[in-house]
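Exercise (ungraded).
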Amino acid sequence: MNERVQFPLSAQDIPRAWYNLAADLPDLAAPRHPATGRAITVDDLLPIVPAELARQELTLDREVEIPEPVRRIYARWRPSPLVRARGLERALDTPARIYYKYEGVSPTGSHKPNTAIAQAYYNKQAGITKLATETGAGQWGSSLALAGALFGLDVSVYMVRVSFDQKPYRQLLMQTYGARCVPSPSSETETGRSILARDPDSPGSLGIASSEAVEIAAQDPSTNYACGSVLNHVLLHQTVIGQEAIAQFALADDYPDVVIGCAGGGSNLGGLSFPFLGEQLRGGRSVRVIAAEPASCPSMTRGTLAYDFGDTAGFTPLLRMHTLGHGFIPPPLHAGGLRYHGMAPLVSEAVAQGLIEPVAVAQSACFAAGVRFARAEGIVPAPESCHAVETAIREALRSKEEGVGRTVLFGLSGHGHFDLSAYGEYFSGTLQDEEFDVGGMYAALAGLPDV
Amino acid sequence: MNERVQFPLSAQDIPRAWYNLAADLPDLAAPRHPATGRAITVDDLLPIVPAELARQELTLDREVEIPEPVRRIYARWRPSPLVRARGLERALDTPARIYYKYEGVSPTGSHKPNTAIAQAYYNKQAGITKLATETGAGQWGSSLALAGALFGLDVSVYMVRVSFDQKPYRQLLMQTYGARCVPSPSSETETGRSILARDPDSPGSLGIASSEAVEIAAQDPSTNYACGSVLNHVLLHQTVIGQEAIAQFALADDYPDVVIGCAGGGSNLGGLSFPFLGEQLRGGRSVRVIAAEPASCPSMTRGTLAYDFGDTAGFTPLLRMHTLGHGFIPPPLHAGGLRYHGMAPLVSEAVAQGLIEPVAVAQSACFAAGVRFARAEGIVPAPESCHAVETAIREALRSKEEGVGRTVLFGLSGHGHFDLSAYGEYFSGTLQDEEFDVGGMYAALAGLPDV
């Protein structure tokens, strides 16, 4: 065992290809066309994404080469640190060895640029000049804004209105990068107008914001849609995280027994865990993978595995995923991110096959874990990442109870510098654990498409 | 010339000693005792700092060994990146090669932890349990809060009131680390109470906040004072920045013609430039060093070189420095940080000897440069750092006019994720260039101590 704190790689060690779990995961259900019910093709996706991303969405190739211009931008902050959490280990007095892979070193402070840069690159190559997208907490929107600035693309971000109002700094970050940020539902789309007509005070949701962005992209040939999570090609791009972690564990002369990621749409979790699962599926070492989701928006632990739309209006292909129903609206006061009605098909299938174990974490427990981590390790985690921190602490304490020195890896997907008002609510006691809206889920599930 | 974008070092390459410019800079004036006027001794400093820091403040040794526990914490984010700013070079169409040394990867997003960690370590070793300090924009206070959490010390931060009101996120960051943040002037000290009696609406100043922290430390044997800039030992600890940069330039097979840093108290500028100046003073390559200060608080370009107090109440030793007078209160609406009446004695002496060239930059020009940099390089700079960005852009454009391909290095001392409201004011046009208060300076200079 190497007893160092960091296990640095050089820019040459940035992976040359993304890893595609679909190549190793048997029985992955294909996305279907909402009108015909048949498996979708590359051509079906061309109105909203460039051909190469459409191909990546459907490919079963194990590896997809990372273009050099994308690797060169990755090299500005990648390989990201793998850190041994010695301060946290001491604070917990645990025999567990805890490591975290820290994505907060990116310019926007999260893992999201890993795919934003790639998507902007392929769109630029395809002659596209404008991108439209949705964002919740704003990590994705600001990352696409960054990528748009670097590749000279105009970016419009439809931001869930409750987040737009709560997080002015995220809007300003997008504006600094030159992007346009619009609260959703907006009056710019049919979708937005019809929702506002029914509910002028709608807090919005990721599903609604996605519909707005997809609608704009489908109508304007110079505009494409960029997606921040859920889809196969998005998770694909994030696998640089787990591949780097595997190389770093070789330097550490260690290997995780448990891999933990927070999961909203699934891209952070998939990016970290899929390369480890790939090793396992090809006969290598086994790992226990845990997906930590919010108790108030628990698609994996409470939802249904079914074909559903990725957005509220029903513009996207049908995806087989764990879902609360595409009409489900998460509690508006939830501060912890990860508010999406569904889970990535790749993650959902891995959960169904027992390769990933989902857990639901309450909001107040997340912030308590985040504060504990900050004081022990120095980094204030994003509320999303706190779900993984809480789960890792629980695993480390179990390790202590059982007297077994396991190796625990978790993804620290971002820092919380934009989310300190949520920490403030936690400190002042105004932050409540939101009830999961079971009735809302059943109502939404009643609207599942008939496939 | 190596054409890569990053020049990564490993944790083993973190310097083993800090570099002390005082060893190579002739004729540095010693700090003096305010009561007697004689040169101060280690003993004079013991009421407020531990013996080892007092020794470092006065030593002429060229190297001071970095303790291993401090290096191990540095290793969580150091060596910090040296990045070739290819995006900015393209945007400016300049023959200059622009590099930046990026300190925003630290847990609090700036260079300040380099000395906070060291100071907390020495205080812990000396059996101290509490630290008191001042902070302006909050970068220093949050960094000392971080260090206090890591070493188990209670931290009280007196924060300039106008910043306390403007930057709630910085307070929350300190709170997350477990520190206590108090708006200054406060009713907790004689200094604060007497200022509030005269002016209940005092916006505060770094000088006032320093007096409060020093007063507390001087009265309570278990509390010491920790300083975020200006003093020799603080600049000493920051020299890891420049030493790493020299090693990274060797990898780049390049060397800077110009080294640029923003300067408020001088620790970021000194940390970056002193190792280069040391090379020059010992007969190595010459560099032009530029210190970029705010036009509204221009100690080097408009102030006087004289003995003055570091704080408003006159508790500190007398320091020979460029000063606007210890009673000078910078414009309260200034968003760009760097609001201190004086300049570090080491920087001041280097300016007096022509080794460092000061320039003053207006606030709006800083934000314009920050936005330009963000869109070209992806990182939103802290307003302080924008002073260096603006100066670097000016140098690169001069390089273009003259058709000379110079190598320009600047310090990107931190990211602006906590300062986006200031960017918002810039975008909305409400951010004004503050006039320098010349009358206020003359009034303050009239109160210089008689030495």
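Further reading is listed at the end of the chapter. For now, observe: Residues 68-109+233-443 of chain A form a domain with the Rossmann fold fold (CATH 3.40.50.1100). Residues 383-402 of chain A form the longest helix (20 residues).
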